[in-house]
Amino acid sequence: MTPDTTQRNAHSAAQREANSSAEEFATPFAERASVIETRELRKVFGEGAAQQVVLGAVELSVREGEMIAIVGPSGSGKSTLLHLLAALDTPTSGAIYFDTNAIETKNEEALAEFRNGAIGFLWQRHQLLPDFTAAENVAMPLLLRTGSSRDGDFTSALLLARKWLAEVGLKDRADHRAGELSGGEQQRVAIARALVTGPRVLLADEPTGDLDEQNAWAVFELLERLHRAHQLTSLIATHNLQLAARCDRILGLEHGVLKTRETADFAKGSLGGEAS
Questions:
Q1: Which strand ranges, in their side-by-side order, compose the sheet holding 233-237?
Q2: Strand 201-205 relative to strand 119-122: parallel, antiparallel, unpaired?
Q3: DSSP-derived secondary structure for 114-128
Q4: DSSP 132
Q5: C or N terminus of the chain, fewer CB within 10 Å?
């Protein structure tokens, strides 16, 4: 087979895959497979009289390609739910399924691989290492995945990190230390770090909560663009009612109960306003 033939075949295969993905994501959400499901998911802190039920029998089904907002007052359990879905915490009872496979059946090695590959997690506070450069911060998950400090692995990780920094608009800031960046820039670095391993699911915990109005909109619009461009499935916990209204679906979490909320209910919410 000639090099030209090989190249044409590779291009045709890539085109077929792109067409297949486009067709899949043109399918209504209700007809798509569930990526994440929970069944009677409960999380309880404390015992006896001090017992606090944070999540009570949560039933959730997240379809491929959805962008879902989770709203609720502070302390309602939004962060706890995201931590459970990311396998960063364990439920008191109930089950979480990823592609129909129960997460709790995985051993520690498989859970670590799940966290590092299938899920991208974005915190409200960026959790960057201030003395490392933006590129080094983004490369960290890749280095943790390989468990190697070889020069070749480090170089390739930095190259991919720089690609992602360019995608979030920080190409020229890659060699600046994280502590030298603005709040909006730091959150963009955190987004690149969350997506550098190529996860299918992005879980974002109040990603605009520490930002001013202008940066909040810029970061959310970036999340929207990346969600569509990379065909992600995204769950975003937020107090921002106007941002929530731009998601495909809104779920309200109050007193440990998760309920579907109408988008119209949030259309008049003020930027940064409290969900109720």
A1: 119-122, 201-205, 233-237, 67-71, 249-254, 257-261
A2: parallel
A3: HHHHTEEEE-SS---
A4: S
A5: N
pLDDT computed for residue 152 by the predictor: 60
Q: In the structure encoding, which two tokens stand for residue 131, read together?
A: 């003395």
Give the pLDDT confidence score for residue 171 in this predicted structure. 97
Q: What is the pLDDT of residues 60-70, one digit of tens each?
A: 999 999 999 99
State the chain's maximal CA–CA distance in angstroms. 75
Element (H, E) at 246: none
Burial grade of 244 (CB within 10 A; 0-12, 13-18, 19 or more): buried
Residue reference for tokens 């579907």: 260
Taking a C-beta distance cutoff of 8 angstroms, is the pair 86, 94 a contact? no
Q: Counting Cβ atoms within 10 Å, is residue 175 exposed (0-12), middle (13-18) or buried (19+)?
A: exposed
pLDDT at 5: 43
- Which residues of the chain have a pLDDT value below 70? 1-26, 146-152, 262-276
3-state secondary structure of 250: strand
Report d(CA 169, CA 113) in Å as an integer: 28
Are 257 and 77 spatial neighbours (Cβ–Cβ below 8 Å)? no
What CA–CA distances, in Å, run from 257 to 54, 56, 85, 142? 9, 6, 16, 36
Q: What is the pLDDT of residue 3?
A: 39
209: burial class by Cβ within 10 Å (0-12, 13-18, 19+)? middle
The C-alpha atoms of residue 241 and residue 238 are separated, in whole angstroms, by 8
pLDDT of residue 272: 39
CATH fold label, 30-266: Rossmann fold (3.40.50)
Phi, psi of 261 (to 5 degrees): -115, 150
Residue 118 confidence (pLDDT)? 94
Using alpha carbons, select from 27, 203, 224, 29 the residue that is nearest to residue 118: 203
Beta bridge mates, 253: 258
